[in-house]
Write a structure and sequence with these properties.
Elements: H1 2-11, E1 16-23, E2 31-39, E3 42-50, H2 54-59, H3 63-74, E4 84-88, E5 95-99, H4 112-127, H5 156-166, E6 175-178, E7 187-190, E8 193-197, E9 204-207, H6 208-223, H7 225-239, H8 247-254, H9 266-270, H10 278-294
Antiparallel strand pairs: 1-2, 2-3, 3-5, 4-5, 6-9, 7-8
Helix pairs in contact: 4-7, 5-10, 6-7, 6-8, 6-10, 8-10
Protein name: Aminoglycoside phosphotransferase domain-containing protein
Pfam family, one: APH
Domain Aminoglycoside phosphotransferase: 40-235
Length: 297
């Protein structure tokens, strides 16, 4: 930790004193800390992410650079995003230092429809950013051609249809800048409004439908399929001619949970969600898949 703190102090302009270091929850593939820095007499909160998952680093050794470039590109989004301060790949554990955004994760909103509409509006704003020249490109987290009907499911016909679709030809689509892990736990709120979007390490050039589908998957598990459908309706309405819905991308995002079975996401538990069970996750997951298949023309 000492070498990390020295690097942080040397990366910030001005006379810097580290006043407090606080671990943050929510990181399942990296270690996150909040630091309160006294810079030229003014307290500044920042966040440092250390890429501690060795398997991830072996697959993507440029993670720190990737997130740094993602944060630079995300500055074009009409929504607050963390500002890059510095990153390093020289340490044994790569790290990135960024500003801390105000706000908190909200998963139990007072008005669900307003919350869903703002989530959709924020994602539309992200997808308006062009991806030209961004070197990281979309790839699926699993190989659809290697997937099989899950043995934990009794709905074999459902999964046979789903796999037939995602194992078929990939439709052409317009590429844009995508977050790649857009879901409610990566969106911050303040006074009933979105105050920022965080966790940009997976951002890339790719199809908007993957981002929308990934968020829908999380919404279906967290709030139910009806909420996920409402989010999609709002996204389509707000995106206008810039987006054409295709069930393929929606389903491709959903099957990234395979081989499964789906479980309760620890990030939800960390912020106080207590009403979810593995059985409910399975029911909602298969309900989402069935709903996507029903949208085929």
């Amino acid at each position: 930790m000492e070498d990390l703190l020295q690097w942080i102090a040397s990366s910030v302009e001005g006379t810097t004193e580290i006043r407090a270091v606080t671990p943050l929850k929510g990181g399942i593939s990296a270690t996150l800390h909040r630091l309160d820095l006294l810079v030229d007499g003014e307290v500044q909160p920042v966040v440092v992410r250390e890429f501690t998952l060795l398997e991830w680093l072996r697959e993507q050794p440029d993670l720190a650079e990737h997130e740094a470039e993602s944060l630079k590109r995300a500055e074009r989004v009409g929504v607050a995003t963390p500002r890059l301060i510095a990153y390093t790949e020289e340490r044994e554990v790569p790290a990135i230092l960024m500003t801390k955004l105000p706000g908190e994760v909200v998963l139990e909103p007072q008005e669900l429809d307003v919350w869903l509409r703002q989530l959709a509006e924020t994602l539309v704003a992200i997808h308006r950013v062009p991806a030209d020249g961004f070197k990281w490109t979309y790839r699926s987290y699993n190989d659809p051609m290697q997937l099989q009907i899950p043995d934990w499911s009794e709905q074999k016909d459902l999964w046979r249809q789903a796999l037939a679709l995602v194992q078929g030809p990939r439709p052409e689509t317009r590429e844009c800048f995508i977050h790649r892990d857009y879901h409610p736990t990566n969106v911050l709120w303040q006074n009933g409004e979105v105050s920022g979007v965080v966790d940009w390490v997976n951002a890339c050039r790719g199809p908007a439908g993957i981002d929308a589908g990934h968020c829908r998957l999380n919404l279906a598990l967290l709030k139910g399929v009806e909420a996920a459908d409402y989010f999609l309706d709002e996204y389509v309405r707000l995106a206008g001619d810039a987006f054409t819905y295709d069930p393929y991308w929606d389903l491709l995002a959903a099957i990234e949970f395979l081989p499964g079975p789906p479980s309760v996401y620890q990030g939800w538990v960390d912020v106080g969600v207590t009403n979810l069970t593995p059985a409910l996750m399975k029911e909602r997951y298969e309900g989402l898949v069935a709903g996507i298949l029903a949208k085929q023309v």
